[in-house]
Specification:
The chain has 387 residues and is an alpha/beta fold. The protein has 3 domains: 72 residues, Orthogonal Bundle (Arc Repressor Mutant, subunit A); 131 residues, 2-Layer Sandwich (Nucleotidyltransferase, domain 5); 150 residues, Nucleotidyltransferase, domain 5. It has 11 helices and 15 strands. The strands form 4 sheets. It has a 5-stranded mixed sheet with strand order 6-5-4-7-10, sandwiched between helices. The N and C termini lie close together (10 Å).
């Protein structure tokens, strides 16, 4: 849209009014003009002008007519879904998954590929290729993406770009953000994968109404996504929740207390032959194999140890078992609770299974990307009015 922006008090007033209209449509829409007028307290003329401008700038669109009221059918307005596109990415140890969503959270496209193992440049190129594939399926270009959030198995500094310590990323993840941006020049944020799983639990899972909780993501390793006061707690330099190295009587200092490698070691100690995966061990336990059940119990005890240690420091209302081991909650939760009751300090420690369906990291990444893309788009739309 061509023209000059209004400056000074007049432009500021329009921005305030337009944001009020935009927010009420976002919160309660689709809405007609009478409902918007009542909800905002603005005049009919002001609402009409704001709607006209917001539609011209692509933030709002007509959504049919309200035929439930008497008299002429009123036009309904909603947020234009394509006003903000967002990309969520989960870089796992074996696969990279991506999803493109619109401003309303609807999935437009998904794609995945094998995770490169040797060079960070290959990982970045794979992310960019998935972004292009998703954009193509959605009938747009990668440059139209308003925000990308990439979940990584790593400690990420507060700048959302610097990887401080990585677990399984090529070349330790050094320069990953810059490499992705060289292929995909859109706003980018890196975030720890377990933190994103905690975001998903808060938005889509069991913790929608829980202000203080800890998501224990157990898979290749173990990490904790900590939410306090309804906000993700990342720590001073992004390392909050790195519980894999908590001291444990049965492990050497500085070694991981829990994860796939630790379970493999426990399986060998239990006399299980071959190199079964954790999933295979859990399946054997379901079948009644005593050696596999011993490994499951040892795993549950270590999870209980981690939960009790964290609870002594922050005492959350709830722990949530997520990650790959969340699928084995039927075997683990009862045992974890028994170990907590027997060994933990006298604290009210509750632990439940994750309530998130699908890839929690990907869902958390896409939610955060959408939130940031929408805020950026809305701020740009109401930043001024054209003459």
């Amino acid at each position: 849209m061509s023209g000059d922006y209004l400056a000074g008090p007049q432009g500021l007033l329009w921005s305030i009014n337009a944001r009020a209209v935009l927010d009420v449509i976002d919160r309660e829409g689709p809405l007609g003009r009478p409902e918007i007028t009542r909800a905002t307290g603005l005049s009919k003329t002001t609402v009409a002008q704001a709607l006209r401008e917001l539609m011209a700038r692509g933030a709002v669109e007509e959504a049919g007519a309200d035929t439930t009221r008497r008299g002429p059918a009123a036009t309904l307005y909603r947020i234009a879904p394509r006003c903000a596109l967002a990309l969520g990415v989960d870089i796992g140890h074996l696969r990279i998954r991506a999803v493109l969503v619109d401003a309303m959270g609807e999935t437009l496209a998904q794609a995945e590929t094998r995770a490169p193992r040797r060079r960070v440049a290959d990982t970045a190129a794979a992310v960019a290729a998935l972004a292009a594939e998703c954009a193509g399926h959605a009938g747009t270009e990668p440059g139209a993406i308003g925000q990308a959030v990439v979940g990584v198995p790593a400690i990420v500094a507060g700048d959302g770009h610097t990887v401080r310590r990585a677990y399984g990323l090529p070349q330790g993840g050094r320069g990953l953000a810059e490499a992705i941006e060289s292929h995909l020049p859109v706003p980018l944020l890196l975030e720890n994968d377990v933190n994103l799983a905690a975001v998903a639990e808060q938005r889509f899972g069991a913790c929608a109404d829980v202000a203080d909780f800890v998501l224990l993501g157990v898979g290749v390793g173990i990490g904790a996504g900590i939410v306090l006061g309804g906000r993700l707690h990342r720590g001073f330099a992004g390392g909050a929740g790195e519980v894999a190295f908590l001291p444990h009587p049965a492990t050497e200092p500085g070694t991981e207390v829990l994860g796939a490698r630790r379970i493999a070691e426990q399986a060998r100690q239990a006399g299980i032959e071959g190199s079964p995966s954790p999933r295979e061990i859990f399946e054997s336990a379901r079948g009644g194999d005593e050696r596999a059940l011993a490994v499951v119990d040892a795993t549950a005890r270590r999870i209980a140890h981690v939960a009790a240690s964290v609870a002594l420091v922050i005492e959350p209302e709830l722990f949530v078992l997520g990650g790959a081991f969340g699928a084995s909650a039927d075997l683990l939760l009862g045992r974890i609770r028994r170990h907590l009751a027997r060994d933990a300090a006298p604290l009210p420690i509750r632990i439940i299974a994750s309530g998130v369906q699908g890839d929690a990291v990907l869902r958390g990444a896409s939610w955060l990307a959408r939130h940031r893309a929408r805020e950026r788009a809305f701020a740009a739309v109401v930043g001024g009015r054209t003459t």
